[in-house]
Amino acid sequence: MNLVSRCPLSHFRFTHPWCCHSMLSALKPFLLPSALLLLALGLWQSPAFQQIGAGVAIFLLGMMALERGFQLLSGSLLQHILQNSTDTRFKALSFGVITTSIMQSSSLVSVLTISFLSAGLIPLAAGLGIIFGANLGTTTGAWLIAGFGLKVSLDVYAMPLLVFGVALLFHSRPRWQGLGNVLVGIGLLFLGIHFMKEGFTAFQDVINLDFSRSDDFSALLLYLLIGIVATVIMQSSHATLVLILTALAADQIGYLAALAIAIGANVGTTITALIGSVSANAAGRQLALGHVIFNFVTGAIALLSLPLLLIAVDALADWFGIIHNDTLKLAIFHTLFNGIGVMVMVPCIPLLTRWLPRLIQATEQDVKQPKYLNESALQTPQAAIAVSQQETLRLFRIARDTMIRGMGWRTSDFRQQLKLQDDSTHRDSSSNQMDLAYQHRLKPIYSAIIAFITLARHDSLKREDEILRHIRAANFHIIEAVKGVKHLQDNLIHYLESDNAPMAASYQELRHQIADVLILAEQLHRDPDLDNHEERFVQQQQQLSDFIERMDHRIDGLIRDRLITPTMATSLITDKGYTQLVCESLLKATRYLLASPQRPVEEHPETTLTELTKTATSDPSTPTT
Question: In the chain, fewer beta carbons within 10 Å around the N or the C end?
Answer without folding.
Answer: C
